[in-house]
């Protein structure tokens, strides 16, 4: 029998994207609840306990509540919400994060998808900490910009509604000014940072695509830091990976600018090392689709791993 998959919250931005990636696959049985029974707790619980994999594309509290409805010990869960990203008993769904991570995802029944911003930030920071180049106590700064689809239905409606003032008057804005962004705890935990990173997110007037940047001063790093050394460390960390790559230094050196939409529609993430040895400074940059490797694509990659399939199925 084909594995049965239920996307709880398939009408949301992430849920819709996951469904689009799965609905044409002949190797899965994608099921939905009768719209008239969406608020029927008994009907929803019955469906949840009848599937092989539950994907909870829900607000945090609703995602936690959905998991409590599981009585069938064989049901596996992928949670794209923030609810379980630092919770005990849940595996962090970033296969490329560590050598053992892919195996942990395959063996787990509870996988929490990373946040879009944190996928880029962890990809850049963690290898430096693991290699001993970046002191875990270093006060890391992360700058990032995302397309407005990252804000879900409400932000999409705001930016795409011609009657809303933001439609014509807001080309770009910063947010998270209270420094309590929900992705920060997972970034700090998964990177092994002792100091809470300073995260400065922003949103632009375009639908999707994301750039995450970590600026560094060589004087704050351990040993004899260099652009090549930073590049080598990232390259070693992701060598042979299907969905994460590091741009050659020559390519990065030839670039004058970088747009956030270049990987839209893919599950790929590309890392860049820009900077100057003479200035003793570097800009580490991650480019990804916030709805791809930053959300729905990552969920499908984790689903494939949990079902024992090739992780690129339906993603290439």
Molecular structure report:
The protein is an alpha/beta fold and 316 residues long. The protein is 33% helix and 21% strand. The protein contains 11 helices and 13 strands. α5 packs parallel to α8. The longest helix is centred in the middle third of the chain and has 15 residues. The mean pLDDT is 94.
Keyword list:
316 residues; alpha/beta; 7-stranded mixed β-sheet; 6-stranded parallel β-sheet; 11 helices; 13 strands; 33% helix; 21% strand; globular
Mean pLDDT across the residues is 94
| SSE sequence, one letter per element | EHEHEHEEHEHEHHEHEEHEHEEH
Radius of gyration: 20 Å
Give the helix level as a range of percent: 25-40%
Strand neighbour order, sheet with most strands: 8-9-7-10-13-12-11
Draw up the topology in text.
Blueprint: E1 4-8, H1 13-22, E2 29-31, H2 41-48, E3 53-56, H3 60-68, E4 76-79, E5 91-92, H4 101-107, E6 110-112, H5 116-130, E7 141-147, H6 152-160, H7 166-169, E8 172-174, H8 184-191, E9 198-204, E10 210-217, H9 227-238, E11 244-246, H10 249-254, E12 269-276, E13 281-288, H11 292-306
Parallel strand pairs: 1-2, 1-3, 3-4, 4-6, 5-6, 7-9, 11-12
Antiparallel strand pairs: 7-10, 8-9, 10-13, 12-13
Helix pairs in contact: 1-11, 5-8, 5-9
């Amino acid at each position: 029998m084909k594995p049965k998959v239920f996307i709880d919250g398939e009408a949301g931005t992430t849920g819709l994207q996951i469904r689009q990636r799965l609905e044409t696959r002949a190797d899965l049985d994608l099921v939905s609840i009768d719209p008239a029974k969406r608020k029927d707790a008994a009907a929803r619980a019955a469906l949840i306990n009848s599937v092989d994999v539950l994907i909870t594309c829900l607000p945090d509290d609703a995602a936690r509540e959905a998991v409590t409805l599981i009585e069938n010990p064989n049901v596996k869960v992928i949670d794209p919400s923030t609810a379980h990203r630092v919770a005990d008993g849940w595996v962090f769904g970033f296969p490329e994060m560590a050598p053992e991570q892919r195996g942990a995802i395959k063996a787990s029944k509870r996988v929490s998808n990373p946040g879009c911003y944190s996928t880029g930030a962890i990809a850049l920071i963690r290898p430096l900490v693991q290699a001993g180049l970046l002191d875990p106590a270093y006060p890391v700064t992360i700058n990032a910009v995302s397309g407005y689809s990252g804000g879900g239905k409400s932000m999409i409606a705001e930016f795409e509604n011609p009657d809303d003032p933001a439609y014509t008057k807001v080309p770009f804005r910063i947010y998270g000014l209270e420094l309590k962004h929900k992705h920060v705890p997972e970034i700090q935990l998964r990177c092994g940072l002792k100091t809470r990173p300073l995260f400065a997110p922003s949103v632009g007037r375009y639908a999707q695509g994301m750039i995450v940047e970590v600026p560094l001063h060589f004087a704050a790093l351990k040993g004899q830091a260099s652009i090549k050394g930073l590049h080598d460390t990232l390259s070693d960390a992701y060598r042979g990976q299907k969905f994460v790559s590091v741009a050659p230094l020559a390519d990065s050196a030839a670039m004058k600018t970088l747009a956030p939409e270049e990987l839209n529609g893919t599950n790929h993430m590309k890392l860049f090392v820009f900077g100057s040895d003479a200035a003793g400074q570097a800009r580490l940059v991650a480019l990804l689709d916030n709805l791809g490797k930053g959300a729905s694509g990552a969920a499908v990659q984790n689903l494939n791993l949990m079902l024992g399939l090739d992780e690129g199925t339906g993603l290439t």
